[in-house]
Amino acid sequence: MKKTEAHRGKYLYCIIESKKPENFGGIGVDGNEVYTINYKDLAAVVSDAANSSYEILHQGLVHQKVVENVMKKYTLIPMSFGQVPKSKDDVKGFLSEHYLEMKKMFEKLDGKIELGVKVSWKMDKIMNEIVSSSDRIRVLNKQIKAKTPEKAYPLKIELGKLVADALSRKGESIANDIYELLSHTAVGKKKNKPIVENMLLNAAFLVEKEKEKEFDEKVNEAEKKYGDKVTFKYVLSPPYNFVSIRGR
């Protein structure tokens, strides 16, 4: 009786344009070799998979690092985490099925990069500014300090609402200004939901590679204007926000 073979699915990281086989080394999930499965002038970047599913907590960073490594050499279409086709033939079938769609995506991405910009409050700085700029907030602060906790409670509720409203208005104004400033240099833009409470802008921009320096200068301009109130996180990212396709 033959032993049952271990699952040999293919963990799928991204798609590149290439006619020749590539090997990126043992950087994949489970420490496996990352290589390509080619179809015409497209190639799926994969590694052998011992499992049919993976937890993002344990392997999400590996997935991200593989994509970032491939991105150093190729324009790519990133795949969402945890795509595990059952076989090499399934991968080729996926490339065949979506061939024309992918070629259009590569045309869209040709000569371009995705740049992510996240802007978050410096909470101590902005809170001091909000308090100092509002007579009503200053008065409430004094009244709260002079009262017992029980009598101060309704005043604290009012104070909280005033501060939240002021923070929201100011945040929306700053976020819109930064977004518009950076949009002028981009050929594509997208606002995403903030991922933490003190974040006021989470945006992605598709920028022509030859205009990356110009975009950098715009980010620096925004940082000079608002750097006393907010922090900037500015990174080169795989183009998840501008192309989207799911594996099998």
Describe the structure.
The chain has 7 helices and 9 strands; from the N terminus they run ββββαβααβαααββαβ. The chain is an alpha+beta fold. The chain folds into 2 domains: 9-110; 114-237. β3 (34-39) and β4 (42-49) form a beta hairpin. The longest helix is centred in the last third of the chain and has 35 residues, at 149-183. The radius of gyration is 25 Å and the shape is elongated. The two termini are 32 Å apart. Mean pLDDT is 91; it is low at 1-6.
Which key terms come to mind for this protein?
alpha+beta; 2 domains; four-stranded antiparallel sheet; elongated; disordered N terminus
| Percent range for β-strand residues | 25-35%
Unreliable residue stretches: 1-6
What would you call the shape? elongated
The chain-level mean pLDDT equals: 91
DSSP summary, beta strand count: 9
Distance between the termini: 32 Å
Radius of gyration: 25 Å
Characterize the biggest β-sheet. Answer: 5 strands, antiparallel
| SSE order | EEEEHEHHEHHHEEHE
SS-derived structural category: alpha+beta
Number of domains: 2
Helix content: 40-55%
The total of helices stands at 7
Question: Major sheet: order of its strands?
Answer: 2-3-4-1-5
Compose a concise summary of this entry:
Helices cover about 45% and strands about 25% of the residues. It has helices spanning about 55-70, 90-95, 100-110, 125-135, 135-145, 150-185, 210-225; strands spanning about 10-15, 25, 35-40, 40-50, 75-85, 110-120, 190, 200-210, 230-235. The radius of gyration is 25 Å and the shape is elongated.
